[in-house]
Amino acid sequence: MFATLATFALAACSTATQQSAPAPVRPITTGGTILTPAAQAKADSGRPRYTAADVRFMQGMIGHHTQALTMVALAPTHGARADVRVLAERIGVSQRDEIALMRSWLVARNETVPDTSASHDHAGMSMPGMDMAGSMMPGMLSPAQMTQLERATGPEFDRLFLTFMIQHHQGAIIMVSQLLAVPGAAGNVDIYRFAADVNVDQTTEINRMRVMLAATPSGTPSR
Q: For residues 51 and 53, what is the distance between their CA atoms, to the nearest angstrom?
């Protein structure tokens, strides 16, 4: 599996370059023309067929990203240091854009889009950490971890935020590896490119956060 991911990440690096500011989300297009859901479905008929695993991946990743947005929203109000606030803002921008992309992909194929309204829990799903099939998603923070993060401030918040976001990003990478392990999955070009971006971008951010965490003072957790 690790060899598969290494090969996948290498191929993805050519399409997932670092940018100073994330590009705006573009509607699904072909040849510069915006496609309606019906036209998109017709276009898909000539492409490798997407699978149920592809749909579950996109649905689950929406909920996964939604929890990350809840986490990053705490940084400005919990005394995070400057570099942690910048990181949180960057994660927030990129993952909001990716949620919009995933929603568009699902809508264009008449697939169910998860409800991520404020009335739902921290995970953005019907149960904490669960995907739409009722399975626990890798890396998701438990309610107790979310409460711990919400109660922290200053250096303690920085330490917990970085620790928990590393855990969260690692979970997203596991979700990519699980997708690739399903025969026929990620044959759709949109799925492949998106999964490649998740794998490369979140691996890069994990490495950055580990360096930041090493520079963060240890503290006594809030109770």
A: 5
Tell me the C-alpha to C-alpha distance, in Å, between residue 47 and each of 58, 157, 179. Answer: 18, 46, 19
Rg over CA atoms, the chain: 18
Q: What is the dihedral of CA 196, 197, 199, 201, to 10 degrees?
A: 160
- Segments making up each domain of the chain, as ranges: 51-214
Name the residue among 48, 91, 94 with its Cα closest to residue 190.
48
Q: What is the pLDDT of residues 81-127, one digit of tens each?
A: 999 999 999 999 999 999 999 999 999 999 999 987 753 444 443 34
Q: Is residue 96 classed exposed, middle or buried when 0-12, 13-18 and 19+ CB atoms within 10 A define those classes?
A: middle
Please report where in the chains the tokens 């670092």 appear, as a residue.
Answer: 18
**Chain centre to alpha carbon of residue 214:** 24
Q: Are the C-beta atoms of 188 and 182 separated by less than 8 Å?
A: no
In which residue are the tokens 């309610």 written? 143
- pLDDT tens-place string over residues 39-49: 666 555 555 47
Map 10-40 to HEC letters: HHHHCCCCCCCCCCCCCCCEECCEECCHHHH
Q: What angle do CA 211, 212, 218 make, to 5 degrees?
A: 110
pTM to 2 decimal places: 0.74
Distance of CA 26 to the CA centre of its chain: 18
Assigned architecture for domain 51-214: Up-down Bundle (1.20)
